[in-house]
Amino acid sequence: MIEIRVHGRGGQGSVTAAELLGFAAHSDGKYAQAFPSFGSERMGAPVQAFVRISDKPIRIRSQVYKPNYVIVQDPTLLEVINVLDGLQEDGLLLINSKKKATELGINTPIKVKTIPAMEIALEVIGRPIMNTTLLGAFAAATGEISLEGIRKAIHHKFPGPVGEKNIAAVLKAFDFIKKESL
Amino acid sequence: MSTTFIEGSIAVAKTVGVCRPQVISAYPITPQTHIVEHLSELVANGELKCEYVNVESEHSAASVVLGASATGARTYTATTSQGFLLMIEVLFNIAGMRLPIVMTCVNRAVSAPINIWNDQQDSLTARDSGWIQLYAEDNQEASDMHLQAFKIAENKDIMLPVMVCMDGFILTHSFDPIELITQEQADKFLSPFTPQYYLTPKNPLSFGTMVGPDGYMETRYFIEKTMQVSLQVISDVAADFHNQFGRFQGGLIDTYKVEDASLVLVAMGSIIGTIKDIVDELRAKGQKIGVLKVRSYRPFPKDEIYKALSHVREIAVVEKAVSLGYGGILANEIKSVFYGKPKTPKINGYILGLGGRDITIDTIHQVIKDSVNVLSEEKFIGLNEALIKR
């Protein structure tokens, strides 16, 4: 089983990102569970959401404490909370930022990747919502979910032209990470 | 079998929808809101032919479904926590009038202090109200239980309301793969509601009129007797469901690796899933451990519990509620199961997860470690020592 923690701020679609990740894994034929960190969500306040993906039915109902992957939607959160908390040593920290990982001053032996998801979202979708864009980067960086799975998830959640734009942003982010690793 | 990746609340709303309720009345309250929002959407979109009555409070919501049910309509409501407590006067009336209403109690802590997170104090407060209470382990069971609930409630030998209890947030806000019930499947399982008596000008009746000392006691006697009959009906309906859908998550109880266990954890609701993972982990290390799920809390299936646990040396009851002044509610009832029996196991009670405190793998390990070592009074597990010593 792999576990994912998504950090964001209220209004950035962190819970939707978790839902879409779970939906994509489910379309890929895996078992999945996605849930928010429960609370009174307020615009701008730090929020978390969690995903579990497994080959077997998922029974555990506690929150995620030792994630394999952490996704950070808002780079300003790096100053506020320890996004590395509990992240496994062979895991990955994926951050929405136009800066390179080395420029962010994160002191960790754990692999860190950045993606200018906000810039991609503004260019392709035309709105400052980068949760779906990050999914493309996540798929490219980890291989845990397929692009086809993300496409199905986005079509389900956002039918019509809005979904198409989001999928275009996903593809762009996917290519960005793939090219970087060449 | 094909599953849909869907939020627990929406899965429940969809199941309630295919049960063809004729009147729904509810007042939104966190974390129940998504259920009733989705149902109102189904009604507004014309997908569900049903009278959806908006009200100004939970007391009114319960009163609306009471009146509607008395006219012979299939009715549904849902609430949680403070809303549940505001309903409670009407909940006793509904049971006393023998109205087969189905309601979801999304389990949440009660005030004060105000807390919107999960425990099971709300529904357990209505333990003695005459409602049948079923507790769901996961969202598949929560969804399936609603179809079963209408069939149990409307059985002519029962005619009692049924409360489906599901853990707030932990289940309601979690997305999981769910086998949804189609309209065709629901229609095959559940016949239209045809009450033997209901309010109609053609045959005037009164419900809930005053009864003096000469008759009141018998109304309680009959509900208690019916509760005993419902033990069989709940089992039968779960078996019918198993036959049609191929899914079975227990009748009155469910057991996991209990047969040869020396230590068994007893619990209700979503904590069962986490415990099952720990049971497998510890069994791999040679510890003979199992878990018993109390699925039907009222009626309380004492014979089934005794049968399942009579060979067990140690029992640890874990629960998310407390009878302030006498410890764990479920723990005390599990102890009473063994009263007068030839062999009494060691029974420890643990209170945890109140007000949404997360129940982790470590929490359950603490319970098991404590339980193996000592015979304890009811104990709180997972307390913040810094707050206590302050």
TrEMBL record, chain A:
- Keyword field: Oxidoreductase, Pyruvate
Question: Where does the source fall among the domains of life?
Answer: Bacteria
Quote one Gene Ontology molecular function term: oxidoreductase activity, acting on the aldehyde or oxo group of donors, iron-sulfur protein as acceptor
- Is-annotated flag, keyword Oxidoreductase? yes
Specify the Pyruvate/ketoisovalerate oxidoreductase catalytic domain's residue ranges: 10-174
Task: Tell me which Pfam families the record gives.
Answer: POR
NCBIfam families, per database record: PorC_KorC, PRK08534.1
Protein's recorded name: Pyruvate:ferredoxin oxidoreductase, gamma subunit
Q: Report the source organism.
A: Candidatus Jettenia ecosi
UniProtKB/TrEMBL annotation, chain B:
GO MF annotation: an example: oxidoreductase activity, acting on the aldehyde or oxo group of donors
| Superkingdom classification of source | Bacteria
Q: Where is the Pyruvate:ferredoxin oxidoreductase core domain?
A: 261-364
**Cross-referenced CDD domains, in alphabetical order?**
TPP_PYR_PFOR_IOR-alpha_like
InterPro entries, per database record: PFOR_II, Pyruvate:ferred/Flavod_OxRd, Pyrv_Fd/Flavodoxin_OxRdtase_N, THDP-binding, Transketo_C/PFOR_II
Keywords from the UniProt entry? Oxidoreductase, Pyruvate
Recorded hits in Pfam families, A to Z, give: PFOR_II, POR_N
UniProt-listed GO biological process terms: carboxylic acid metabolic process; response to oxidative stress
Tell me the protein's name: Pyruvate:ferredoxin oxidoreductase, alpha subunit
